[in-house]
Amino acid sequence: MNKDELLDNLLLDPIKRFINNSTTGGIVLFSAAIVAIGLANSPLSEWYFKLWHVKFSIGFDNFMVSKDLSHWINDGLMAIFFFVVGLELKREIIAGELNNFRKSLLPIAAAVGGMVVPALVYLLFNPSGEAQNGWGIPMATDIAFALGVLYLLGDRVPVSAKIFLTALAIVDDIGAVLVIAFFYTSNINYESLFIGGIFLAVLVSANYLGVRNVLFYGLVGIGGLWLAFLMSGVHATIAAVIAAFTIPANVVVDELGYYQKAKALLKKYRDMAPNNKPTVTDDQLHVLSEIRLLSKSAQTPLQRLEHSLHPWVAFIVMPVFALANAGVVISDGIVQQASSPIALGVFLGLMAGKVIGITLAVRLLVRFKLAELPAGLNNMHLLGLAFLGAIGFTMSLFVAELAFDDPAAISQAKIGILLSSVVASIIGYFIIKNAGRQKRG
What residues does each domain of the chain span? Predict the structure, then answer.
């Protein structure tokens, strides 16, 4: 074994496996939340809270945007998260679990039930006043956390359970994006919105004309569409989802064409005279470049972007967001805060509303033979998955920051979110762990 292979085996391969492991994103996210809570209750708490209020400005002349670090994270950095959400949505709609109405009916119904019932439960505790604005908080499911818990169970979980939960969370994301767009948007500046529309038209036209350079879409999407939406009053993360839907999702070379051309290029490379040197010849380099370009043409820009951005979102964007937003001060009044109408509405909205909404919607569809449980799933699996759906975390924290201006209300909502996320993940884990003992129902 040479030193390069030794480096790969001892260092690079374990790191790659760690990054690609489906549980890792959830573990890192949870760790960031624990660090945030620790800092908020440590001697560094004053520094921790002041850090997020440091102001930054971008732009020029009359197009200057000035926000504190917290807002840049929630409006800017999280736009990358929503962009990836948009890419996932488009992929699922075009060629995934949502491309067939009959196949997607069950997760769609489960997601709708898991959004409507939690909102109603929250409103039972907060029927009026500013607290009423938080009804959207318990509607969300954190796909990274939920899937992280599910993958910790390994082979004990049927593949159909992972597919069902993923599809449910994707539909849930659509609902969350729509809720943010229509109910958590400030006063609209139509001039900026019109400019954003122009940039959107450029992106759509580029897709139609066959432009496949992702850098072009990034520059126009971020420098144009996102910035225009940010200044318009419509939440800028919506621009990220819209921009994602303009990314091309087709290949230049199909599977058969790729196989035939790649086979010819590999044969050409094999027939070349051996170089017997550490470097390759110009002819070999030319063939290798052709193979690389051919492989690129056989991939969709959408999937290339999704694949390349996923580690950035999982290991930078979401942990930084959690670090900035999960800090809750645990004081003598923590019990009083946790028993406030906002905290109870969020906690029970997620813990009871999600579970009831998801299971009831599924059972009704199965009962009236409009759909059937996926192969390998039983009622215990469904109940466990419903509890995992009650892990709101990232999106719930995000909506809480939009719903309230009062720091006390935000803190109460965060307590409800964090408590429900921990309790739901533990209950969901143990239910699914023992679900294999029950016969399919």
Answer: 22-185+235-250+300-436, 255-297
Q: What confidence tens digit (pLDDT) does each residue in 297-347 have?
A: 888 888 888 888 888 888 888 889 889 888 888 876 778 888 899 999 999
Helix (H, G, I), strand (E, B) or coil at 60: strand
Residue 332, token pair as written in the block? 């003598």
The residue whose two tokens read 């907060």 is 126
Q: Residue 188 corresponds to which tokens in the numbers above?
A: 């609209």
Output b/e per residue, 31-43; b: 16+ Cβ within 10 A. Answer: ebbebbbebbeee
Cα 240 versus chain centre, distance: 12
CA distance 58 to 260: 50
pLDDT at residue number 62: 63
Question: Rounded to an integer, what distance in angstroms lies between the CA atom of residue 233 and that of residue 327?
Answer: 27
| Domain with residues 22-185+235-250+300-436, CATH architecture | Up-down Bundle (1.20)
* Token code pair at residue 53: 């209020």
Q: How far is CA 117 from the centre of its chain?
A: 22
Question: Amino acid letter at 95?
Answer: A
- pLDDT tens digits, one per residue of 86-126: 888 788 788 776 777 777 888 889 999 999 999 999 999 99
* pLDDT given for residue 121 in this prediction: 97
State how beta strands 55-60 and 63-68 pair: antiparallel
| Whether residue 7 has pLDDT greater than 50 | no
Beta carbons of 235 and 184 less than 8 angstroms apart: yes
Q: Do residues 352 and 121 make contact, with C-beta atoms less than 8 angstroms apart?
A: yes
Predicted TM-score of the model (pTM) = 0.78
Instruction: Give which of 61, 83, 58, 84 is closest to 71, Cα–Cα.
Output: 58
Among candidate residues 313, 286, 304, 403, the one with its CA nearest the CA of residue 349: 403
217-257 per-position pLDDT tens digit: 888 887 788 888 877 777 777 788 888 889 998 888 888 99
